[in-house]
Recover the amino acids of this structure.
């Protein structure tokens, strides 16, 4: 995802921001953060480094005899991770969608921004409430099967 979003970021950034310096700094901070989370998380659970489990699976299967506060923090951490991972990608995809609408379809910046920022949420509500997603899966499966059978 980093490779596909970098050109969009370069177009969005302020003119006085130096891309190479910014990207280098971000990569260094992210690398240090990943190393710290991995090491500290790996040292927190026995058998430490001799396991094939991930940190999230260790947090998910924390011992029932552990203090209640620790279990609540572990479960909250799992939920916070999944929410933050998804929320971090939404603005990136909105920017990519806006550029595609502007360049590919020729829509003005205002309407491209409005569609790119509102359409995913409207579609998510439609697909995840009721039977919208199941209907979309059934219809797309029917059309794909029909095309394959005709070929």
């Amino acid at each position: 995802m980093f490779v596909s979003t970098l050109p969009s970021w370069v177009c969005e950034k302020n003119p006085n921001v130096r891309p190479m310096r910014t990207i280098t700094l971000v990569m260094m901070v992210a690398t240090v953060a990943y190393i710290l989370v991995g090491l500290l998380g790996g040292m927190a659970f026995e058998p430490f480094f001799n396991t094939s489990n991930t940190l999230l699976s260790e947090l998910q299967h924390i011992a029932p005899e552990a203090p209640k506060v620790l279990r609540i923090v572990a479960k909250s951490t799992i939920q916070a991770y999944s929410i933050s991972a998804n929320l971090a990608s939404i603005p990136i995809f909105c920017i990519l969608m806006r550029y595609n609408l502007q360049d590919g379809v020729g829509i003005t910046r205002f309407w491209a921004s409005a569609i790119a920022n509102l359409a995913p949420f409207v579609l998510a509500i439609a697909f995840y409430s009721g039977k919208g997603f199941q209907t979309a899966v059934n219809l797309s499966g029917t059309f794909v099967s029909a095309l394959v059978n005709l070929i």
Remarks:
- Residues 107-151 form one domain.
- The mean pLDDT is 83.
- The longest helix spans residues 68-105.
